[in-house]
Amino acid sequence: MLTFLIRSLEAAMIFTFAGLGELVDQRAGILNVGLEGIMLFGATLGFIAAKTTGNYLLGFLVGIGIGALLGLLHGFFSITLGVDQVVSGMGIWIFGFGMTTYIGNPYTGPLGLDQIPAIFGVSPFVYLAVIMVVLVWFVLSKTGLGLKIRSVGERPGVAAVSGVSVTRIRYMSVIFGGMMSGFAGAVYALYYNPVWNYNFLMGWGFISLALVFFSMWNSYLLFGGAVLFGLLWQLALNPQMFFPGLASRYIWRMVPFMMTILVLTLISSKWFRSRWGATKPEALGLPYHKE
Amino acid sequence: MTNAKTRGETIELHGDIWKHIQPGEVVLDAQGITKRYPGGVLANDHIDFKVKAGEIHAILGENGAGKTTLMSILFGLLQPDEGEIYIRGLKVRFRSPEDAIKMGIGMVHQHRKLIPAHSVLENILLGHPRSKGVMKLKEAEEEVAALAKRYGFEIDIRAKVWQLTEGEKQVVEIVKALYRGAKILILDEPTSALTPLETDRLLESIESMTQDALGVVPFITHKLPVVLAISDEVTILRRGRVVDRLKTAEATEQILAQKMVGRPVIFDLQKQPVEPGEPVIQVENLSARNNKGVMALNQVSFTVREGEILGIAGVAGNGQHELAEALFGLRPIEGGRILFLRRDITRASVQERWKLGMGYTPSERTEVGSIPDFSLIENVAMNYYFDARFNHRGLLDYGGLRRLTEQIIDEFDVATPGPDVNIRTLSGGNLQKVILGRVLSRHPKLVIANLPAQGLDVGATEFVQRQLLAAREQKAAVILISEDLDEILSLSDWIAPMYEGEMVDIIPAAEAKKEVIGAMIAGVHQQERES
User: Fold this and answer.
1) To the nearest whole angstrom, how far is the Cα of B138 from the nearest Cα of chain A?
2) To pair with B204 at 20 to 30 A between CA atoms, which of B392, B405, B412, B528?
3) Would you call B133 an interface residue with chain A, using a CB distance cutoff of 8 Å?
4) Domains contained in chain A, number
């Protein structure tokens, strides 16, 4: 039972890392649906780097680095070229899926390094995830940088006349999002499940993406959602443990997605909007062109 | 040297440049400002003007006179091809709004540059040096409150901007500019969205700013009385040139209009008496919600008869827009009944309403009123595609539509190279003439004109108003929605002031007084009734 809870928390921290990156990204108005692709790259290249050198740190750095590069790529497409952000993001996912399968195939098998030690029985990354949640909340709501990020995601034109460089803030955000996703992928492959095989990630990037909508762009809600999704995911791996004979694991695996659909339906309902106001960044997914 | 460091220095420099300022001294001196657009259009042709500390210097001109271009140049959004700008004798060059802001220029935009989802304080702090690093919200709040108090502004600093009225948003923009250290305040159409009461309050605040030796430069298109009330000096632009500059004390409304338009303008529209006929539309207890789901139209009832204009007066956001859309079937209603020619049309579709003889000219001319990348013919077809004269079993008669469009261009005096150009290329006034023309050419029994003259220059406004009067003379019923009380008073037979979704009263125009209606749309009556 305790292992079950700890594994759930460890899944939650990975959702949190990727989700926080995407949250900042979306608050700045950039939608990156290619999270899964960036996580695949971070996981695969991080895995290879750590396996060949035996150095964990290098593995994580490679994961963060490739994430930053892919974030930059998405930024170039969606900010500089102004192409449809969904198309660019899907491109990154498909590219990531194909490319990492090709690159990673020769390295199929376990990592073969000592497990990173736990602190008080829990992975150190769980603590890091909590710190990041507080940090992202603090930066977004208490600092000038956060105000700029939020403004650029709401009304880029207004931010521009107030002297904010929309392009710079959006690039910063999209690169940060990429780094967090790459890191999340590396944590997955170097800690959570240190074995490389075909399609090892199984949609974790998409769950993290769904989580951002679920969180209504609030980092604390995102963390709560991540814990919930982590529990559900763990349950989906082994539903017999709690509900013997009740639906297959494949049905259980859909539950986080179904919950997201429910939440999305709820927050876009008239009732919700008139009661809580619109929460979605107004300029999400819209390219900004100077007049 | 880092970027942040250079910025810090410029801010200090700006602090220096504004030291020991004397009232009456020239603070802004624009010399020979010239801007040519691709295609050779001279938007600004050697424009000179000076603004003194403590002076209100109005820039007056019609749409297309070059006001927007000049404003953009002063605020660093555009760079002039020729000419120089001096701030307290120092030659400056603005490459971006940020440069202009640092040199003490503040801009209050007509189309508000605020973020609705953020609080007032966050909007004021955006781009402000105080917001570097961790924002000092407490100190900022105190400073902003003190600044607002100094000039007599009342704002709720913690409210979200979407909760504010247009007038309050404008106050936020002004305070934002002042808080960033503006010494020269450019106001774009400062009173266009305000009630008479708000206008008076704004004028008082501006008055107190000039006592602090601020230079104020309002840019004005329509409201000539405001120019007279507010300014010390007026520079009048026409076709990109300065046609005259005069002391306001020496000017009258007639003189200003004539110089601005280039010909005498008759303010008296000479409304013909028309004997009202049968009721055209009868509305009973109509209610509807706005886009946020809040009740915005509450139990409104009225009747308009043939040959009558009902003027709906009110400040934006008091339910007029919802009323227009509900009447035309564009918005679901929450209750009530609409009778058109004694027939219940409450559930009728928009197309049925067109066919029955209703016509609508939307206020959002480029979003709802037209499809910018369609030709004039196709845009005219939008009100005719269902008409048996032009639709033969699904096949559109483009030849007939072309002749119709040419007729509209001719009758409504639309300036365009021809009916085939995209409607995007038309100026605001000409676009509105097409929109109005395609409705009036159907000879509708009821016209719902939603802000028909808003944003148009003096000439186009006069034209549009004459057309509405002509429709009335042909026995059409007209529902005129306007935020301009003068327009309401001069056109209407009946006046219905609206406040918070309710019709405060329906008054015969002959008995209406501007002050009374101004108080009604500001909710003064409401408060009296409640207390």
Assistant:
1) 12
2) B528
3) yes
4) 1
